[in-house]
Amino acid sequence: MTAFIAVRFKVKAGREQQFLDAHNKVTDAWPGLSRANIIKTGEHTFCIIAEWPDMDALGNARDRMIATLDSFRDTLEDLGGGLGVTDPISGPVVKALK
Description:
Elements: E1 3-10, H1 16-21, H2 26-29, E2 35-42, E3 45-52, H3 55-72, E4 87-92
Antiparallel strand pairs: 1-3, 1-4, 2-3
């Protein structure tokens, strides 16, 4: 079953382009990735939503996703509440709506 991950970020002022540029090669860097989009959710806040064929493929890409994160970690602000600089959630699709 198709799987998704969504990760919320808050980017330091003036560092947005560096954050976006760090994702330019995710198609090659994240094995098995079906597609991914970054959405702007507010002032300096973004969310990446990425799709894999299944949870195994997503899990197999986890180390590479962390390596990508490490390449731009210094552009991020702490989200507070003990989250650190990311707020990730993931899981399999349980009902496709369209």
